[in-house]
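ARCHIVE CARD
Drawer: 12
Card no.: 0347
Subject: one protein chain, sequence and derived structure
Cross-reference: see card 0346
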Amino acid sequence: MLFLLVTPLWLKAAFWGLVSGSALMLGALLAYFKHVPKKIIALIMAFGSGVLISALAFELMDEAYKRGGFDAAAIGFVSGAVIYSGANYLLSRHGAKHRKRSGDQQPSESDHPGSGLAIALGALIDGIPESIAIGLSIIHGGVVSVAAVVAIFLSNVPESLSSTAGMKKAARSAKYIFGIWGTITVLSGLAALAGFAVFRHFSPDVIAATVAVAAGAILAMLSSTMSPEAYE
């Protein structure tokens, strides 16, 4: 804890981004080396979704509203959902539609050439908004939102767990699977760092809108990937 007290804020942002992102590797390891029953996957996915919805409602959107008022929070939230949904639609057309599925829905590279890259990019856009939100939370008061970090960590475990199970069934290699989650873990730290470093000099309205954009993207991700997998 002493380390965090004397650490520069930009390094704190990167550290907490890495902490939350490391859960992706944890979920991948569990799914790759252990058989996890479908009902357990569903339970964990649903729990992670609920935790993340609570975090974006009571942490991210509350912070956005307090900083920038209703207009900045509302515009940012809708924009985040639209941007994510648009990117997700484009990637879905190239084979990433079922990237969170633990069953046999994910295509192999022979079934859908180029789907490997699309799935990797899809996993990236799923995780980056969360990490940016962590970096933004440090701007106000220099203290990270512990609730947001915990919520993102808890949601990342089932996210990669389910996706990795589907990747294995689609005959993806271990190098591909752990390469994706390892890369996104590192990028999570960099995204949190960018969230702090890039936006700390901006006006409260811009910061509020950016926090809301992240919240909107997270909710769109939950409704289009994690919640459907939990239900199925």
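Annotation on reverse: The two ends are 41 Å apart (CA to CA). The mean pLDDT is 88.
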